[in-house]
UniProtKB/TrEMBL annotation:
GO terms for molecular function: ATP binding; kinase activity; phosphotransferase activity, alcohol group as acceptor. This is Anhydro-N-acetylmuramic acid kinase. It comes from Spiribacter salilacus. Pathway: Amino-sugar metabolism; 1,6-anhydro-N-acetylmuramate degradation; Cell wall biogenesis; peptidoglycan recycling. The keyword Chloroplast does not apply. It comes from the Bacteria.
């Protein structure tokens, strides 16, 4: 069988940039080989513009970014191909998640909106594109998120029960039984989205490097308990959330007077850790280890807090298993592109709540 290459592109709710992976995968149930990966930050002006999109943003602005983002994606694809020294004709498809700018399961009907026109990307790259991965699940009554458990099952199955934690803007968790014979997953709550927002507002920095600022503060226990009392944390799976709920407008009214900014950051980090531990307890998980992926894996203070909160379950970064934490989601969307071309239907009933197996992703030929 000839080698089959796929590219995955992911830009998450941290709005920090684009993660890209080139993988070899000859069948949806075959091992995935990571050939090349890279992260390209969005220019600061793009980051700011995307973060500001909300329910009142003019439609013309939203459509501008829908048609402009593929230019950035195409540049990343070109860089990835150049780094890998591969002929683009060998690439079967690009799996492009797009940039989520709105995810609201309380809307009627529910909404999950990703920007990045796949037709433009196919035209710019000359490669088939698979995109719109969340829309079919949403149409079938699912939460449209998380999708990561589908490829966590392929990447991280083990002979023992395992949990996989993705620390992006939102923390989501995958629960794998022995040899991944059963897979479930759901969103735990905020991760980088609140930590980064509070850091930007108070320090003028994009993020808290290694969690050093949070580590300098003290957890305000009463505030932590107040934040954990939000009804979201009591919801049973399937459940999903986003910055539409967990943002500074949610946080500010709950802050006690005269609290130090560093103490708020410490409390937000502890909120992430405790909400993850609570989610594991609520699920009845028997996981022996927790594999951490996503940008939050670089936050040493956050990892320390999570390790303490989920003990005696051991905690390891996916890098220790040979898969870079920053690349897991882009690898996953490359795999989902392969699955789409192969006509695979995915059972999401224990993840998003979709009632029947579904194909994920629309195909946009070059």
């Amino acid at each position: 069988m000839s080698r089959q290459y796929f590219i995955g592109l992911m830009s998450g709710t941290s709005f920090d940039g684009i993660d890209a992976s080139l993988v070899q995968c000859n069948a949806p149930d075959a091992p995935i080989t990571l050939c090349e990966d890279l992260h390209v930050p969005y220019p600061p002006a793009v980051q700011q513009a995307l973060r500001q999109i909300n329910a009142s943003t003019p439609l013309a602005t939203v459509l501008h970014w829908h048609n402009t983002l593929p230019t950035y994606y195409a540049d990343v694809v070109q860089a990835l191909i150049a780094n890998a020294e591969i002929d683009r004709a060998q690439i079967m498809a690009i799996g492009c998640h797009g940039q989520t700018v709105w995810h609201d399961m309380q809307a009627n009907p529910p909404i999950s909106a990703q920007l990045g026109n796949p037709s433009h990307l196919a035209e710019l790259t000359g490669i088939d594109v698979v995109a719109d991965f969340r829309q079919r699940d949403l149409a079938a009554g699912g939460q449209a998120a998380p999708l990561a458990p589908l490829f966590h099952r392929v990447l991280f199955k083990a002979p023992h029960p395992r949990a996989v934690l993705n620390l992006g803007g939102i923390a989501n968790i995958t629960l794998l039984s022995e040899n991944a014979s059963a897979t479930s997953g759901f969103d735990c709550g905020p991760a980088n989205t609140l930590l980064d927002a509070w850091c930007r507002e108070n320090l003028g920095k994009a993020f808290d490097e290694a969690g050093e600022w949070a580590a300098s503060g003290k957890v305000h226990q009463a505030l932590l308990e107040q934040l954990l009392s939000d009804p979201f944390f009591a919801l049973k799976p399937p459940r999903s959330t986003g910055p539409e709920l967990f943002n500074l407008n949610w946080l500010r009214p709950q802050l006690p007077p005269a609290i130090a900014a560093a103490d708020v950051q410490a409390t937000l980090a502890e909120l992430t850790a405790q909400s993850i531990a609570k989610a594991l307890r609520q699920s009845g998980s028997k996981a022996e280890d927790l594999v951490v992926t996503g940008g939050g894996a670089h936050n040493a203070d956050l990892i320390r807090r999570i390790t303490a909160a989920v003990a005696p379950c051991s905690v390891n970064l996916s890098d220790a298993l040979g898969i870079p934490a920053d690349a897991v989601e882009s690898i996953g969307f490359a795999w989902l592109a392969h699955a789409a071309l192969a006509g695979i239907r995915h059972d999401l009933s224990a993840i998003t709540g979709a009632p029947q197996p579904l194909p994920l992703g629309g195909i946009y030929p070059r």
